[in-house]
């Protein structure tokens, strides 16, 4: 099962990524000023996952990616895939596990292992 991982960007805004069962990033969200906005959007996505649209693209370098649309707005952008089949597998993983995935919060930069 995948997971939503909340973290901070270098500009102190929040983002989340959806990671696959193997730990690879499938997509990255837009930026959020406040952490609760990030959490609310994850919950909204989990509830409305059936209405999500996936717009598929091919970059000039020949890589495949998608933009995740929710409610007619861009919600997230995927990582780059080498083949269209791998792209589809990423989408299938979101559809299968996105609604039941847990949320992990790493935005506090608290180190588990201290020096």
Structure keywords:
single chain, 115 residues, alpha+beta, PH-domain like, 23% helix, globular
Strand order of the largest sheet: 4-5-6-3-2-1-7
Overall spatial form = globular
Q: Helical proportion? A: 10-25%
- What is the arithmetic mean of pLDDT? 90
CATH architecture: Roll
Q: CATH topology, which one?
A: PH-domain like
Could you tell me how far the N terminus lies from the C terminus, measured between alpha carbons in angstroms? 32 Å
| Cα-based radius of gyration, to the nearest Å | 14 Å
Beta content comes to 25-35%
Topology as a string of helices (H) and strands (E): EEEHEEEHE
Number of helices: 2
Number of domains: 1
Give a concise summary.
With 115 residues, the protein is of the alpha+beta class. It has helices at 35-47, 84-97, and strands spanning 3-8, 14-19, 25-29, 53-58, 64-70, 73-78, 102-105.
Could you explain the architecture of this structure?
The chain is an alpha+beta fold and 115 residues long. The protein has a single domain (3-105), classed as PH-domain like, CATH 2.30.29. 23% of the residues lie in helices and 35% in strands. The chain contains 2 helices and 7 strands; from the N terminus they run βββαβββαβ. The protein has helices spanning 35-47, 84-97, and strands at residues 3-8, 14-19, 25-29, 53-58, 64-70, 73-78, 102-105. A 7-stranded mixed beta sheet has the order 4-5-6-3-2-1-7. The longest helix is centred in the C-terminal third of the chain and has 14 residues, at 84-97. The mean pLDDT is 90.
């Amino acid at each position: 099962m995948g997971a939503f991982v909340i973290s901070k960007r270098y500009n102190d805004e929040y983002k989340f990524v959806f990671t696959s069962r193997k730990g690879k990033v499938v997509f990255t969200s837009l930026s959020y000023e406040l952490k609760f906005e990030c959490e609310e959007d994850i919950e909204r996505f989990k509830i409305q996952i059936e209405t999500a649209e996936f717009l598929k693209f091919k970059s000039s370098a020949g890589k495949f990616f998608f933009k995740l649309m929710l409610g007619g707005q861009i919600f997230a952008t995927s990582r780059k895939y080498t083949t269209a089949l791998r792209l589809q597998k990423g989408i299938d993983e979101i559809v299968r596990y996105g609604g039941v995935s847990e949320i992990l919060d790493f935005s506090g930069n608290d180190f588990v292992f201290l020096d």
